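User: Could you check the structure of this?
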Amino acid sequence: MQQRFEQYKDPLAFLIDHYGAQVDFISIRLEQSESTSLLLRGTKLETLSEEFSLGGQIRACYRGGWGFASFNGIQALRERMEEAVTAAKWVGTGKTILAEIEPHQAVVPLQFSGTNPREVSIARKKNLCSNYADLLRSVSPKVTTVSVRYLDSLQNVLYVTSEGTALEQSWVDMEMRFAATARDDNQVQTGREATGSRQAFEDLEGLEQQVQQASVRAVNALDLPTVKSGIYPIVIDPVLTGLFVHEAFGHLSEADMAYENPDLLEVMAMGKLFGPSTLNIYDGAALAGHRGSYQYDDEGVPSTIAPLIQEGILVGRLHSRETAGKLKEKPTGNARCLNYHYPPIVRMTNTWIEKGATSADDLLADIHEGIYARNWLGGMTNGEMFTFSPGEAWMIRDGRIAEPIRDVTLSGNAFKTLSHIEAIGNDFYWDESGGCGKAEQVGLSVGCGGPSLRIRDVVVSGDSL
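Assistant: Sure, the predicted structure tokens are below.
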């Protein structure tokens, strides 16, 4: 990687010195990327694309105002720097406040536990998709539509700033998504599965049992009864816990959502009690080996593990340098951008609830009538309100899992739901299938983790999303 950007280092250093004297802060991100994307629908390969690009972005800050410009090809760099500096001067009317950090100079190479997907042939990737699609169709004649989506990408990034930071980082990301639709008379049901990795192409192979479940769930759901709407105690599995902590709570912990919103700052006040004393929530890219892991964020801040809730009490939030500076808190290394077309904003990395001490049987005990939900089908959030549809659900009767049900929707207020957590399981699972969307930057790699949870008084409806 050292050779990849070597020819650009001196010109970038000159431009940083020249334009850095005109503003309070300026940075250049130079990015070389390549990717492969396949979409197989039914037996037809609908999409097969290979993309290669070299581009970058400039961010300039002057009197608190930001100028941003992106470019394709190095030839436009100087012109775009002029644009970013000019824009910052147009909008800057206050004071630049960025949390102080030590400038870092480092080269972070690619790290793998197996095969780099960029070294795998297109034919092998296509065969993998075809084999999984055949498997989805083979479950039942009632499976009428299947799709398999494959994506891998490589990003090589050089990041330099007027403060002396100079970083080179590389990472590869992979994901696969599977869907199956089953039909029987007027009934239609869908099942989904997904996976992802930054470790090895082999992580996408040998998933037959997991992939098949998308079709199995869709077919089985055709004959299931719907749930009677009401308020129930529920037990959710670790996959749903990860989805809940990311979507319903994690986004509210992103400081750019709060630092200019007095109402949200009041709701998310440090020291406020949000849940039981056994509840601990964290986010951190410093946790190695996951899809949200890295050594430095896209502002050159070292990654951390940030406690958000400890013993039920709110103790932290996620920051960029600007939000940390304005709220007089420490930066957490959570400024991320999808690619050079977008500026870095505050994003989650790997978000999880720590496991507890309650066994699976004890989570169900004492529930006369409730619902056990696992996996995911869909969901949405609006501020502190959430609505999720699990992939599978069963009634709980007298402390035992009973008959399966379908079309279950769980909804509620994130803060109220956290306070209604009654027990935290001693199991734990990392879900690496996540792709987070925010401010038009959709598909950012994240990890979500957690144990099973028992939650009281959850609103449940029998209508699917």
